[in-house]
Structure formats: structure tokens, C-alpha cells
Design a protein that fits this description.
single chain; about 280 residues; alpha+beta
Length: about 280
């Protein structure tokens, strides 16, 4: 198991034990808390058992956005517990308040541990870097696929997150193009161009008007021949955030959104290839 799975497993075990304890011993817990309402603890126990199930599911799936939501719920638990104790709500006994804060402290540690583990997902080869990889096998020859995906001047026609592309100078390696999306725009320079194999663009993230939270960003597009009629398109995005906290706070949201964008882009390329191979 990796670090993220281990951190989730700890949370699942703790939440499962806590929920089961409240379900089985809710009357005894009610006595310790002096609240005279054991049903409340039974309901909390049911919620915790359900929460445990969602954590176990993510141990296998490891979806960043879902893990991020688990972490948020942990921190909300800590916040709610702190409010309960500080303002002495519901007439809870001193023993009950001590238990609440002890549990909150454990939950806080688990939330921090999960946050650190979440920040490590999609780690690239270089320290501090992350990498997204997407690929799809399409029914077309390698030259046909290259002709479609290397039409970098018309990238905006297939990429849903790009409104316009203008070639500023050059062609192949050294080419500079300007891309825009809504009111935002940026320049990219081609750093690799190997005909019918691979090309890369590096974004000028140091420009004063660059609108996104990346310290560096490089996109690479490859074509790999499977056989005479099938080719794999590979897309790699290597990047680094400007701030460390963005690795866990922003990254899950970005990955979810960017995955949808790339899937639509690949769908559009696949449609273009169908038109090409069918002669339409």
C-alpha cells in the first residue's frame, strides 16, 4: 500500500471503531456525556460507519477529489468539536468534553497525515514536480494520427479549454504561439519536435500576466505505433505549483477538471481521425 492508502486505512480503522462503539455502547456513552439522549450517539455511530465505508472505497479508488472531501470532513469534525467544548454546548460533562477533544486531536492528526499523502500523488521524476499522463489507442495509422495532433495552429478547435491560438514565430522546435481562454492569454515555446513521434511546448509561466498558479508547465504529445491500423496517443503534462499547499488544496480539483478536458480533447481528435480515414 502507498502512503495515501495507509493514511486512509488509519482513518477507516479509527472511524469504524468509533462508530461501532457508539452503536453498541450508546447508553454507556450517554451516561459519560450526561446528555440523557442516547439516540444522538446511535445516529452519530451510523454516520461514522457510513463514513468508514466511503474511506474504504477510496483506499482502492484513490480519487483525489473524493480523498480531498474526506480530509475536509475530518477538519470540519475538529472545528465542530472545538466549538462544542469552548462554548460548553448541550451541557456535556467534563469527561465528555475531554473525550471530544482527544478524539478531535486524533482526527486532526489523521487529516494532516492524509493531506501530506494527498500532496504526493502524481509526483513526477523531479523533486517538487507533478505529472499527468493520459493516453488513448485510436484506429488509425501513425502518420494519420500525427497529422491530426500536430496541427498545433488549430489546437483550439479540439481543445475545450483553449479559445484561440496564434503562431507568433517559427515552426517546429523554437516555434512560439499564443493561446487564450476567455480574458486570459499566455505564450508557449516548442522545445521538442521530432516528426511523426513527439513534440513539447513549455509555457512562459514567469510572464507578469500569466494567469494560472504554476511555477512551471510543460506539455508533451507523443504517437506510438501499436500495429499498422492502431496508434496510441500519449499526453504528458509536467508541472510545479507556485505554493506547496496547492499540492493538496488545489491539485484534486485541478485533476478532476483537467481529466474531463483531456477526455473531450481526445474524443475530438478521434472524431477528426474518423473523418480523415473515411475520406469525409
Amino acid at each position: 500500500m502507498n502512503q495515501l492508502q495507509n493514511s486512509l486505512l488509519i482513518n477507516a480503522v479509527f472511524s469504524g471503531i468509533s462508530g461501532s462503539t457508539l452503536l453498541i455502547f450508546n447508553q454507556r456513552v450517554d451516561e459519560l456525556f450526561n446528555t440523557n439522549n442516547p439516540m444522538v450517539f446511535k445516529i452519530i455511530g451510523i454516520v461514522l460507519v457510513f463514513f468508514t465505508g466511503t474511506i474504504v472505497y477510496e483506499i482502492f479508488k484513490q480519487r483525489p477529489l473524493a480523498v480531498w472531501w474526506i480530509i475536509i470532513q475530518d477538519f470540519l469534525w475538529v472545528l465542530g468539536s472545538t466549538i462544542l467544548v469552548i462554548f460548553r454546548l448541550f451541557g456535556i460533562s467534563n469527561t465528555g468534553n475531554i473525550i471530544i477533544m482527544l478524539v478531535a486531536f486524533v482526527v486532526l492528526l489523521m487529516g494532516i497525515n492524509q493531506s501530506k499523502a494527498l500532496a504526493q500523488i502524481d509526483t513526477g521524476l523531479q523533486k517538487g514536480m507533478k505529472q499527468f499522463r493520459f493516453d488513448r489507442i485510436v484506429n488509425a495509422t501513425k502518420p494519420e494520427v500525427w497529422r491530426v495532433i500536430s496541427d498545433v495552429a488549430n489546437y483550439h478547435r479540439v481543445a475545450p479549454n483553449i479559445d484561440d491560438v496564434k503562431i507568433i514565430s517559427g515552426e517546429g522546435k523554437g516555434m512560439v504561439r499564443r493561446c487564450s481562454h476567455g480574458k486570459d492569454s499566455w505564450t508557449e515555446t516548442c522545445s521538442v519536435w521530432e516528426e511523426e513521434r513527439v513534440y513539447s511546448f513549455e509555457i512562459n509561466t514567469s510572464a507578469p500576466d500569466y494567469p494560472y498558479p504554476f511555477k512551471s508547465l510543460k506539455g508533451t504529445w507523443l504517437v506510438e505505433e501499436i500495429d499498422n491500423d492502431n496508434t496510441r496517443i500519449v499526453m504528458l503534462f509536467d508541472f510545479q505549483y507556485k505554493r506547496k499547499f496547492q499540492n493538496w488544496l488545489l491539485h484534486p480539483l485541478l485533476k478532476s477538471k483537467f481529466t474531463k478536458i483531456v477526455e473531450e480533447l481526445l474524443d475530438n481528435w478521434q472524431e477528426e481521425l474518423k473523418k480523415t480515414t473515411n475520406g469525409t
